[in-house]
Amino acid sequence: MKYSDVQPFSEIYPDELTSCRIFAKLRTMSGPVGTPDSPAPDSPAPGNPASNTGARTPRLNVPEPGTRHGEALKFDDLAIEGYPAEPGGAERPPIDVEGWPIRKMSFSLIRVLDDEGNAVGPWAGSLTPEQLIEGLEDMLLVRAFDARMLRSQRQGKTSFYMQSLGEEAIACAHRKALSPGDMNFPTYRQQGLLIADDYPLVTMINQIYSNRHDPMKGHQLPVMYSSKEHGFFTLSGNLATQYIQAVGWAMASAIRGDDKVASAWIGDGATAESDFHAGLVFASTYQAPVVLNIVNNQWAISTFQGMARGEVATFAAKGLGFGIPSLRVDGNDYLAVHAVSKWAVDRARAGHGPTLIEWVTYRAGAHSTSDDPSAYRPAGEAAAWPLGDPIDRLCRHLVRIGAWDAERHAAAVEAAETAVREAEATAESYGTLRSDDAASPADIFDDLYAVAPPHIRRQRQQLGY
């Protein structure tokens, strides 16, 4: 290949990639910034010969959120100029496509539902009205479950809880795109993966209450579930570990000649962890059958998403350097979530390798029951989120096609709340964090080894168990 045959860098990369900063932004600085003693950018600094030769002094760049308390709300980075963000505007490529030909899809936004509730574009039509109603009922159940558990934590029945308010469509719709035997490697906000797969609510609450029927026997913090039968790998509180575990599981599936697919989950903030990048390296190199989900809910605890995203325009674009097809999707659009999830799962199952998906959504609630979001983000930001509420949007679509009405919706809400209330009452009868009949401390020694080694047996005897 001759040098003249190489495509110019500026033609290969979209504008957003050429705006990436490999290093921190450099700004001229030779005195305290923002003081009367700060020299003009082009003037030489006294006593600094280098300044006379045009050299610059590095200055650390600290990203800031687009809106502060008291300022007008804005979401400037949601739609990127020059890339489709309107409903129905994104293409639907074949599942055997490679990453580079569809690189622009990491900057566009795949959407199906428009503002009137119509399903439009090439990604529409993957679900029947009956399946959509089931999806709506799943999301209503997740929201009712979250609300009940949040109250239970305030009442002292559990020490901790994390809700998924505003993000229900992502886990619920994604679950429907998977098959029995596939395995999710979730974070702590994907309870919808279990609920949409009919995992018993009582069992979930037993784990949250750490009572004597807790399937984890107190080994895990509340909300850190585990169920092999429901494709829910044991949840880890350590950030980003799910990515390398999922990729390794997917590689093992391929080695066995199996058709099972792994689905890895991570939040926007945890993409700054090294495990995220290590997972992408192995997924790309070995073409593992895995879906790599990034839930961009705009806030990592008290830190806005720009801190982990860096100067690249989207989280989806992080997959491009690894040659992984990377898509950016409206995470509050149930139809879009299901369609793209099914596309990525089918692609992995057919042997075409990994897909990275950035789900654009908004964490409407607190990060956890230990968090107060009013301390770091503007009031009203959740209500102003341009992509709306996932339940409201799917409800509007079902009404639009004549499959839903206000009466049926009220009945569905009541049914969800009743189911959660009854499950909570049953679980509470087995004990809560405040009960005297909570799980026995002896349980800490169970399920660690097939045969307990001598030092574990001695510890158990020392504690009288």
What does this structure look like?
By secondary structure, this protein is an alpha/beta fold. The chain is 33% helix and 7% strand. The protein has a five-stranded parallel β-sheet, sandwiched between helices. Strands 4-5 form a two-stranded antiparallel ribbon. It starts with 8 loop residues before the first helix and ends with a helix. Mean pLDDT is 87; it is low at 1-52.
**Topology as H/E string?**
HHHHEHHHEHEEEHEHEHHHH
Average pLDDT, rounded to a whole number, is 87
Assembly annotation: single chain
Distance between the termini: 73 Å
Structural class: alpha/beta
- Give the biggest sheet: 5 strands, parallel
Which strand order do you get reading across the main beta sheet? Answer: 1-2-3-7-6
Integer-rounded radius of gyration: 25 Å
* Envelope shape: globular
Number of strands: 7
Number of helices: 14
Percentage of residues in helical conformation: 25-40%
Beta-strand content: 5-15%
Q: Segments where pLDDT lies below 50 for 5+ residues? A: 1-52
Topology:
Elements: H1 9-12, H2 15-18, H3 129-154, H4 168-177, E1 183-185, H5 191-195, H6 201-209, H7 241-256, E2 262-267, H8 274-286, E3 290-296, E4 299-300, E5 303-304, H9 306-309, E6 326-330, H10 334-349, E7 355-360, H11 381-384, H12 390-400, H13 406-429, H14 454-462
Parallel strand pairs: 1-2, 2-3, 3-7, 6-7
Antiparallel strand pairs: 4-5
